[in-house]
Hints:
The complex is a heterodimer.
Chain A: H1 15-32, H2 36-50, E1 54-56, E2 62-69, E3 76-83, E4 86-89
Chain B: E1 3-8, H1 16-29, E2 34-38, H2 46-50, H3 60-64, H4 70-73, E3 75-76, E4 83-86, H5 99-112, E5 115-119, H6 126-133, E6 137-142, H7 146-161, E7 168-174, H8 176-181, H9 187-194, E8 197-203, H10 206-214, H11 225-237, H12 252-260
Parallel strand pairs in B: 1-5, 1-6, 2-4, 2-5, 6-7, 7-8
Antiparallel strand pairs in B: 3-4
Helix pairs in contact in B: 1-11, 5-6
Amino acid sequence: MFNMFGRGNRRDHKSKEIAKERLKLVLVHDRANVSPHFLEMIKGDIVGVIKDYIEVDEKGLEITITKTKREYDDTMVPALVANIPIKRMKYREK
Amino acid sequence: MGEVLVITSGKGGVGKTTTAANIGTALSLLGKKVVIVDADIGLRNLDVVMGLENRIVYDIVDVTQGICRLKQALIKDKRYDGLYLLPAAQTKDKTAIQPKQMLALSKRLKEEFDYILIDCPAGIEQGFKNAIAGADKAIVVTAPEISAVRDADRIIGLLEANEIYNPKLIVNKVRIDMVKKGDMMDIDDMIDILAIELLGVIPDDQSIVISTNRGEPAVTDENSLAGRAFKNIAERILGNEVPFLDLDVDESFFRKFARKLGFK
């Protein structure tokens, strides 16, 4: 339906918007000073916290800094995303 | 007691030297006693931009090494009252000066001048460390390009790490025609991303090339839009409120109209 009016929101395709998005993402990394070592440290600590409750696949654990759309206003914000594959739940409610 | 302002950018080629020469000249035209210090040792350029290249005898390294007195190395610009240049050395490298020496030099210059502008070299290594060593405040120059804004962000972080807070931003080389087409980041975008206060916007202007060819800063050219923008920056440094130049004189009406219709 929207195509009746051309290519939808064309402003998003302007090169300045592309520049802005790329710049914002690169600055998230620059500002956080995210070295692989830094992420490894976070990884180690997260595993340390949850291993009492959950047995996780440490080799399959991924942690990255990325961007995500904030729900209440749809703006892009940096996010720390951890993908933690679970092998087995240890914790049982008594 | 004067004030030391370092003009820095991280990235090369965004217009630090041009900015230093123009703001310095404008401040002198406003009655201040100003020295512009070329801290780019080994790549001296401020002298040619200011048109003073034929008058250099001693340089900043000679001063810090005690080869000459400070007065002997300072070049007085005879065209503009109260304007001086302290040139960089051309044959030495950045390790010829230490931050401690720059700090001491800045202190001495503060006794003599109202404003000490330091033209910082590109990069974040020793030359940068030297240039900011004695600075009270910083002016960050950038251009509407990803690379320049990224480096500006890094520089702002490094300035803070060195306890130079609240740097002010100059956006240089703005092409309003491209901004309007959506092919160049606009000022609001950059202010938003860098989160610092704006000191001025300089249009990409042929008059800068012409004035540099002649060795006469653009602020002395009444017809130069960039020159007017630099003059306004000098006023703001003195604490005067000056509205930002409308770089888009012809079509501002259309733009306002478009904005009302909801287009930015």
